[in-house]
From TrEMBL:
Organism annotation: Phocoena sinus (Vaquita)
Domain PRELI/MSF1: 3-175
Family matches, as PROSITE patterns: CRAL_TRIO, GOLD, PRELI_MSF1
Single annotated GO MF: protein sequestering activity
The protein's name in its UniProt record: SEC14 like lipid binding 1
Gene: SEC14L1
Domain CRAL-TRIO: 319-495
Amino acid sequence: MVQKYQSPVRVYKHPFELIMAAYERRFPTCPLIPMFVDSDTVNEFKSEDGAIHVTERRCKLDIDAPRLLKKIAGVDYVYFIQKNSLNSRERTLHIEARNETFSNRVIINEHCCYSVHPENEDWTCFEQSASLDIKSFFGFESTVEKIAMKQYTSNIKKGKEIIEYYLRQLEEEGITFVPRWTPPSLAPSSEMSSSCKKPAAPLAVVVPDPALKEGLSSEPLSTPSGVPEPAVGTPDDKLDADYIKRYLGDLTPLQESCLIRLRQWLQETHKGKIPKDEHILRFLRARDFNIDKARETLCQSLTWRKQHQVDYILDTWQPPQVLQDYYAGGWHHHDKDGRPLYVLRLGQMDTKGLVRALGEEALLRYVLSINEEGLRRCEENTKVFGRPISSWTCLVDLEGLNMRHLWRPGVKALLRIIEVVEANYPETLGRLLILRAPRVFPVLWTLVSPFIDDNTRRKFLIYAGNDYQGPGGLLDYIDKEIIPDFLSGECMCEVPEGGLVPKSLYRTAEELENEDLKLWTETIYQSASVFKGAPHEILVQIVDASSVITWDFDVCKGDIVFNIYHSKRSPQPPKKDSLGAHSITSPGGNNAQLIDRIWQLGRDYSLVESPLICREGESVQGSHVTRWPGFYILQWKFHSMPACAATSLPRVDDVLASLQVSSHKCKVMYYTEVIGSEDFRGSMTSLESSHSGFSQLSAATTSSSQSYSSSMVSRWRFC
């Protein structure tokens, strides 16, 4: 497996030429990098005007590896070829490095770049990326990979320190300015090439003693032009190292790389608003910075948020009055670490009454709004306290908890809420303080703990009786001034006291369903599973000629082929147990086939659009203008299926074994609508980037499909 690394943008508040003077002092060897033994210049080129300077070096490294491994490999040192391309006119330095030793077994490539900050020409940006691919290494591939990654990350940490060390060295020698390159016709008579070598008096600007004492760790010197310094930015929307430390926390180089690579992938593939960096980082932390796992869960969550419009819940949804009166929970200041503090008096809450009065869906939606509010408060506290705050603390008071709280539908609702929150709000709970746990608590804990992630469970602190008042109790985490009054504190807590919900507010199951409270059905989209050999098909009946069939679908998993067929006769309705009869279920979406196995393409039905291959993560919008009435079938088919021919389509019976393989399953989320031709133009104005040419008539269609057809489609990557 190829290991990749991508650094954040590191900003030096010094001009490019001064950074280059410091960089050149690293050669031929650098005492700050013990493994860097020596380097020899093997090739060098300079342009006539002196703007281009290319240097190729052979670097000798003493890798910190077990002596036995070195003996087996038969080497004491490894050699790298480093090519530096300095363009003084453009003020850039590109560094390319590759391994010479064991190049047939191990492939290491690195690229670094120094360039001018896009918002301040007197600042310098640095980026680097690298890849490691171990083909074979005497059976020690895993060991070599670990050693290589350890050595590389160690040197990354030292990179900025080394440049700053040589900058201080230059300052001690009185050099704080190196002039820019100028064309020979405009250059002064003195030699310019010495500017990046040992300092010469004409090129040095000696600063006064007070400035010397400040050192380079202070704010940068004023620019000659007197232009105010902009805040440290992220060029081309890239992450800045200082920004990461200020708003996201201290991350290791590999953790920074995972964040940057996942963020770049989302920018390239995700249609719509890119999740905030804090949100991406939470999913990475929840999966121990495994990019593939984090990407999968994050994409599922983004699809869920889009489907149920969770991003707008705080602006568009008003909690029912019953929740405002009887839900005994609310936000209450912050803990000692600056985390927002949420107080829940679960023991005083009538969970049965709330479920009977509102239903499970309303409670779930309310919890989602609490989590969205928590994310907002974390952002605010990050600004207020000047340090990264990405989670909140929850204080749960269990005084009053009894068997009534173990009512089965209430526990079921609680488990579902936990499941949804765990999947979509990972690493948001910083600490959970459970106070005054009664004897019945172990029963509840036994029921819910299996559904809670191990990392989350480690954040639980449980106190029985008044133990929270002793050493290691509440005062260790919350300031005395904000401990709620119901816990013998001094702060008045505005959290509702809860109490029994009046039975007059109870609703029947039919009433709750009619109230349209179901979160999962409050969307115009439908989900479907597509299996290898079992496509998903829907029927659209057209009565009026020149109607327009429109579609909008997201490919959530796998690659699919989208087809549109026409038939003069109606297909038989799909059997509800088409998969269930074979003891195969379709979790996360339905699956239906309409085209009968005895139908033949070209005789019983025809293809009216060229097949469209849609990759995982794409979002597709399109339309088909019909000429003939009849029955149209929209089909999503597994991509590896062969093209439709004049034979029957493979059915479920033919591929039962393959259905059990997860790689043979795709998921789509779709919406279709039929629009009258007179309304078509107005509706199409809402489609983004539509362009004609999505489909053409198939050459093998029958007369019924040789109708006039025009289609428009727009497609993009969403995640």
